[in-house]
Amino acid sequence: MSYFEAFTSNTLAAGGNQTVFHPVGEQVGRVFYRVFAGGTYRYSLLFSDVIDSTFADGSISRAGDTCGGFTLTRLAMGVCDTLESSPSLQPITVGGVSSYTLKSGETVATDPLVITAAAGQYLCIEIGFYGHTVPCHAETQIPVFVKRDNAWIPSCEVPLPSMVGCDRPVKHRVAYWGDSITQGIGVEPNSYRHWNALVSERLGRENSYWNLGLGFGRAMDAALDGSWLRKACTAEAVVLCFGVNDMGRRTAQQICEDLTAAVTALQAAGCRVLLQTVPPFEYSPEARERWQQVNRYLRTVLRHRADAFFDVETALGSDPKRYGGHPNEEGCRVWAEGILKPLGKLLENLDK
After folding, report:
1. CATH no. for residue 40?
2. pTM reported for the whole predicted model
3. 164 closest CA partner among 46, 52, 263, 284
4. Are 45 and 107 within one domain?
5. What single string gives the DSSP state of each residue in 259-320?
6. Euclidean distance between CA atoms 258 and 160, whole angstroms
7. Which residues neighbour 238 within 8 Å (Cβ) at sequence distance 6 or greater?
């Protein structure tokens, strides 16, 4: 049985390898994930040596880059109610050992650990690591710390799990795949008020939801036959939203081709796809013209190839100043209310 047949996401926080950093010596970090569905389950964490999306201008890391291998020196996990709590941590092993070195390009799952946690509590995961090049989520919106002189200091420079998985039985597995807007930038960090967290809460806990949003993510990254696409292909339903970061880098035709390729690849893997138009943003005049051309293609052509469709631009309006380029809490509420019906219907159709 594969990892994704046994385990499914149990947090609404975004996860994935966005870029890299270069630690000096062995370090220890902690990350706090809010639990989505409470209960007693076997948890397994998924770690990867591969970078999912291109970061910034691509000079630091690009989609598909490998880190060359790094070592998880120790792993432990516990449950707490607040960030100030001192959780009792249980050790986690990989292949029966406490320290594990990932090979270049490898993805590995930890051995299952039984954890009891209520919805809304935090899973505190402690991660010891070293390596010349280590993946991280530079723009993560959840609490991450490293230990310095016996104090926990906020820092994104920790290799985070790509999935916080558990063996909770679910009706359907949903993935949200996109850039920083899907990730949740725009609302208060650690608030879990981004648009896909809100709609997931409305849809309920009979399903699982995996947020694959990463800042700077592009349609051209999504179209690659890489680790990011392969993760998305493990879901039954994928909610797709790309294009903002492509507008200043690609022609309208190229963006349309990349989005078409991503939809085609997902459907070939057996996924149902909910396609969205590209959200409003503070584009240059040239990029704004491309944005309009791409959205026209999505509305008139690609929507008919997708399994469901939601027009984000119509819901939020074309002025990025209304809710912010990265939608604020009010914009995310409008988005969630608008997409609830088409996503709910798509999930209903999975049963047919």
Report:
1. 2.60.120
2. 0.97
3. 46
4. yes
5. HHHHHHHHHHTT-EEEEEPPPP----HHHHHHHHHHHHHHHHTGGGTSSEEE-HHHHH-S-T
6. 28
7. 174, 175, 176, 177, 232, 266, 271, 272, 273, 274
Q: Which range of residues forms the domain containing residue 188?
A: 170-350
Residues 132 and 174 in one domain: no
Total domains, the chain: 2
154 strand-pairing partners: 145
State yes or no: pLDDT of 45 exceeds 60: yes
Q: Distance of CA 19 to CAs 50, 112, 250, Å?
A: 9, 27, 21
- Distance, in Å, from the CA atom of 221 to the CA atom of 83, rounded to the nearest integer, reads 34
User: First CA to last CA across the chain, in angstroms?
Assistant: 25
Q: What is the pLDDT of residues 274-330, one digit of tens each?
A: 999 999 999 999 999 999 999 999 999 999 999 999 999 999 999 999 999 999 999
Residue 27 pLDDT exceeds 80: yes
Tokens of 244: 């903002």
The partner residues of 144 in beta bridges, in order of sequence, read: 31
Q: What is the separation of C-alpha 8 from the centre of its chain, rounded to a whole number of angstroms?
A: 13
Q: Does one domain contain both 175 and 119?
A: no
Q: Are residues 138 and 37 in the same domain?
A: yes
**Cβ within 8 Å of residue 321, ≥6 positions away:** none
CA distance 196 to 225: 25
Looking at the structure, tell me whether residues 160 and 175 fall in a common domain. Answer: no
Task: Give 152's strand partners.
Answer: 147
Q: 280 CB contacts (<8 Å, ≥6 apart)?
A: 313, 316, 317, 318, 319, 320, 322, 325
Supply the CATH number for residue 191's domain.
Answer: 3.40.50.1110
Q: What is the average pLDDT across 201-224?
A: 97
Q: Is 227 left (phi over 0), alpha (psi -120 to 50) or beta?
A: alpha
Structural contact between residues 20 and 61, judged by C-beta atoms closer than 8 angstroms: yes
